[in-house]
Amino acid sequence: MPCRKTGPMICFSLEAHAVDDAEILQTIRETFAGTDRIIDPHTAVAVAAAHRAKGAAGCAVLSVSTAHPAKFPDAVEQALGFAPPVPEPLARVYDAPERFEIVPSSLDAVRAAIG
To answer: Which pLDDT belongs to residue 6?
Structure first.
């Protein structure tokens, strides 16, 4: 779908792209080399797809990152040769004891569990 102006500053384009593991790692490398920012593999998929988007020609592209690269240290290390730093709040989550409750698979049981 070509870029369609939806307002004075907004273009709209909707496309789907597949990105394989090799391209994910390459996108992590290229993004870091070009911006000094470490991105996670999910963001790398969005960035790689945005670079390919034919309908985005002439439009600014916004890719929103929804995960921290420290959640994917193996992939980042494979791409960049080092693991990303882990922010203190995430480190606390990793160090916290795991808590869970097994709930029967019914809507009522789930509602009762989350109260």
So the answer is: 58
For residues 43-51, give the mean pLDDT: 93
Supply the angle between the helices 73-80 and 21-35 in degrees, to the nearest 10.
Answer: 70
**CA 45 to CA 115: how far, in whole Å?**
36
Find the largest Cα–Cα distance for the chain: 52
The pLDDT, as a whole number, for residue 66 is 81
Triad 36, 20, 16: Cα angle to 5°: 95
Looking at this protein, which amino acid is placed at residue 54?
K
Residue among 78, 74, 71, 18 at smallest CA distance from 48: 18
4-8, 35-39, 63-67, 108-112: range with lowest mean pLDDT = 4-8
What pTM value is reported for the model?
Answer: 0.75
Q: Give the closest residue to 80 by CA, choosing from 15, 36, 17, 16.
A: 36
66 token code pair:
């929804």
